[in-house]
Amino acid sequence: MLGICRGRRKFLAASLTLLCIPAVTWLYLFAGSFEDGKPVSLSPLESQAHSPRYTASSQRERESLEVRVREVEEENRALRRQLSLAQGRAPAPRRGNHSKTSSLEEGTGDSENLRAGIVAGNSSECGQQPVVEKCETIHVAIVCAGYNASRDVVTLVKSVLFHRRNPLHFHLIADSIAEHPAVRVDFYNADELKSEVSWIPNKHYSGIYGLMKLVLTKTLPANLERVIVLDTDITFATDIAELWAVFHKFKGQQVLGLVENQSDWYLGNLWKNHRPWPALGRGYNTGVILLLLDKLRKMKWEQMWRLTAERELMGMLSTSLADQDIFNAVIKQNPFLVYQLPCFWNVQLSDHTRSEQCYRDVSDLKVIHWNSPKKLRVKNKHVEFFRNLYLTFLEYDGNLLRRELFGCPSEADVNSENLQKQLSELDEDDLCYEFRRERFTVHRTHLYFLHYEYEPASDSTDVTLVAQLSMDRLQMLEAICKHWEGPISLALYLSDAEAQQFLRYAQGSEVLMGRHNVAYHIVYKEGQFYPVNLLRNVAMKHAGTPYMFLSDIDFLPMYGLYEYLRKSVIQLDLANTKKAMIVPAFETLRYRLSFPKSKAELLSMLDMGTLFTFRYHVWTKGHAPTNFAKWRTATTPYRVEWEADFEPYVVVRRDCPEYDRRFVGFGWNKVAHIMDAGAQEYEFIVLPNAYMIHMPHAPSFDITKFRSNKQYRICLKTLSRRYGFPALKYLTAENNS
Where is this region: Disordered (predicted)? Predict the structure, then answer.
């Protein structure tokens, strides 16, 4: 930028010595003579400008300069075409179109700068760009209540973090996002705000949450002076600090920064008898708002919008576009409140909008707003480019955005300091360093990734099936849902891209979409180990019932097990005793199995060799204490004693011990948990009429690592000594290595 400024001053000095050269020639030269930030060489003219032999009447030199200007213009046109083709950019509209759209491009407070906003793209006039201090914190408020919004906000936050150079402070109404360095997040309970706006009838698909931006002056901290408010269906294509800098352009009583609405909605001519809320001209879109909170509070904003809404609702009866209708009605009465932002700060991709007039090139784009219910299926000439940009952030690895800002230290965090201290105490030369370090990894987690709605049974006997899985076990979900009608809590270990694949898989499944009592919690991949016990703990923590069935994703429970367990909870008085009810585990080697519908049928299949007790041929000790011989004839629950290496699948109260998250990958993870339960004096009770069957699958990456990597087994054995002895699964693997 400084180089460009110096270049312009040189040209200006030269131009003052050249008499009789039309001013418009120099304007064209300035507009079209820069390539890669350097001025086109005019050294002959510059040297002549200081020469006594140079005369203003030199017709030859004037003609030479004009020829050079035309050449430069042509070169730049060719360069723009090449760049558009090379980067797959949309062709630019003709210059003539801009005279028709100046109202979209100009800011009401600074039109002399913003008139050139589209033409200049992301560049700015020399010395006129407002400054945002290097470590100045930018405040962003987002209403992200509801399951779709909680997913959309992740993509929005990624796009903001990708471009940002300043510390950020997010103010989120409702849902949680991951932690990042130099990013602070405050949460506000949406349920506590419902009473503020629930009296307003709203037809918009956003429901009651679509009205909550109206109460931000009351909701956000009283000492917060300004904030950028964003819808969740926004994608940033530039540093948000550029938008924050626009606050410096507000003048007088301007307290709202908004982009003009790019559809004809508020013009009232979309269909016969179309009657929108009152608005100033085309009205304004509230997907991106700059709020001067301190001034709004002084103006009694709460009273202002409430009185306006009450008055208009007498005739309109309800809002059609949620908060946007009320904002526009207030602005209609008080136009001085608005600073009109250039439309590239909110390129609205609804059907039949004028969004294409907001940009001439990719570099002009700053904020893309998917404000149509159709979202990615919206009609737009360049929608393929916009869709690819959105999908890039959708599947972008969020771990890559966890970076410190140089020169802007994060706020002191006791947990982070303790974590750093613990990490510093590890010996990096230790061959088990990566194994030990894994337990300190802070994984990004997205709770309730899909819609979940369930109220536990009123008799306090409800049981949640708890399990964890990765992408290669998705095929088990539908079968488990068919076998278990009760609530399920699942932790899925996925990358950002895999999370989107899972979303498409689930949305395409009638079985999964028909179940609202299955909670899916995404734990995003990080590191080289599979954090199996961390995943189990996440799923356990968010089981919403008094009891949990701690299963694995490869097992199918018997039909009717859910109701049987609820009855057993009462029979064995689990509410008042420390018991772990064991569900005996079996396995089949057949991918297609006629699942036994009763204990008698299962025993018959055992005798025929179609079924086996689980892992009897490789790890007998894991389930031998269940005493399968006794189970065959048992009609009442019976107690068994804990033994070394015992790892049954159990039903316990929610207050049972957590899994030890230091165990990662394959080996010892369930054994250690059952050992903890035994140490805490849990009784192990085998249920006589319950069973589960393990379905065959290809070996996991972690079991392969266990069998083939001797150092992995050594590290695991070292960790297991905490429990008094080094028993491990598949010891034959160690003996054979």
Answer: 43-64, 82-112
Ramachandran angles phi, psi of 200, nearest 5°? -95, 115
**30-34, 89-93, 631-635: least confident range:** 30-34
Taking the CB of residue 334, how many other CB atoms lie within 10 A of it?
16
Residue 116: closest CA among 16, 236, 27: 27
pLDDT digits (tens, 9 = 90+) for 579-619: 999 999 999 988 888 999 999 999 999 999 999 999 888 77
Do 694 and 590 meet the contact criterion of CB atoms below 8 Å apart?
no
Q: Are 637 and 593 in contact (CB under 8 A)?
A: no
Nearest CA among 653, 673, 652 for reference residue 661: 673
pTM summary value: 0.74
DSSP secondary structure, 445-468, as one string: EES--S-------TTS--EEEEEE
Structure-block tokens of residue 561: 């097990």
- The residue whose two tokens read 């690819």 is 388
What percent of the chain is predicted at pLDDT more than 90?
A: 48
Q: How far is CA 76 from the centre of its chain?
A: 40
Which of 342-356, 479-493, 497-511, 723-737 has the least mean pLDDT?
723-737
**Phi and psi at residue 26, in whole multiples of 5°?**
-70, -35
DSSP state of 688: T
Q: Residues 94-129, buried b or exposed e (16+ Cβ, 10 A)?
A: eeeebeebeebbbbbbbeebbbbbbebbbebeeeee
Q: What distance in Å separates the CA atoms of residue 551 and residue 151, rounded to the nearest whole number? A: 27
Buried b (16+ CB within 10 A) or exposed e, 17-30: ebeebeeebbebbe
CA-to-CA separations, 731 to 34, 327, 722, 735, in angstroms, rounded? 71, 69, 18, 7
Q: What is the pLDDT of residue 372?
A: 74
Identify the pLDDT of residue 513.
95
* Neighbour order of strands in the sheet with 338-341: 183-188, 168-173, 138-143, 226-230, 284-292, 256-260, 338-341
Token digits of residue 406: 């140089």
Interval 169-193: pLDDT, tens: 999 987 444 445 567 888 888 888 8
CA nearest to 341, candidates 283, 279, 260, 286: 260
C-beta of residue 687 within 8 angstroms of C-beta of residue 582 = yes
Instruction: Name which of 600, 416, 537, 450 is nearest 148 in CA terms.
Output: 450
CA nearest neighbour of 689 among 530, 543, 583, 606: 583
